[in-house]
Amino acid sequence: MVVHVYRRCLLADRLDDVVVATDSEEIRSVVEAHGGSAVMTRSDHANGTERIAEAAESLESEIVVNVFGDEALVMPDSIDAVVAALHDDASVNVGILVNPFTTRNSPGDIKVVLDDRGDVMYLSRSDIPSNARTADAPMLKAYHIVPFRREFLLEYATWPAGRLETVEFHEHLRILERGHSIRAVEVESSAVSVDTLDDLEYVRRLMVSDPVFEQYKDRPVGG
Question: Which residues, 6+ apart, have CB-to-CB distance to 139 below 8 Å?
């Protein structure tokens, strides 16, 4: 799965390089066997953002994009859209993609509410906004393509986990709890995070007719 994510990231116009950050020798070996690049990190990180912060210490890039390794159907144009938010506004330190979502009572999915500027107000595993008074209140789900300005990412890694981050078990709440903003970019996407065997089977079925897969399935990395 991580190879699919890697190959799809290579198709994004706004990414200059793609590197897998991992503490797993098995993942590193798989990525490199498929012609990809991987860096080993410590195994004691609390989350993936801390992991890529370690990897970013040796980079000179102004912007570092965290693409979660379970986003097997990530769309290259979605990556470009959220990276553009940082390119277009120097005040934005972090971005995140969101997409419309209708499934209720799914704690495996992170729901997002935004303010009028398009910045994240809160992220939760609960259904937000609530439909207690408004039937079928529209929801947004986090689509985990998260660009950071490098210096802000390195600063993030120095902060302790926040109370809400711990309660919701979601790393980006640490940013909000420290009083910083996250700029959201809404896209229409059917991308699925692979968290269960059912998710994996669903993605396998979609991959058969996926137009992005067609672009790289018969090409070597870099070809």
Answer: 100, 101, 102, 111, 127, 128, 129
Q: Is residue 11 part of a domain?
A: yes
pLDDT at 223: 53
pLDDT digits (tens, 9 = 90+) for 77-99: 999 999 999 999 999 999 999 99
- For the chain, strand residue ranges (E) read 20-22, 38-40, 63-67, 95-101, 111-114, 120-124, 139-143, 145-149, 183-186
Total domain count for the chain?
A: 1
What is the per-residue pLDDT for 202?
81
Residue 167, both tokens = 């309660």
Q: Are 108 and 114 in contact (CB under 8 A)?
A: no
Could you tell me the residue range of the domain that residue 127 belongs to? 2-216
Domain contains 58: yes
pLDDT at 208: 84
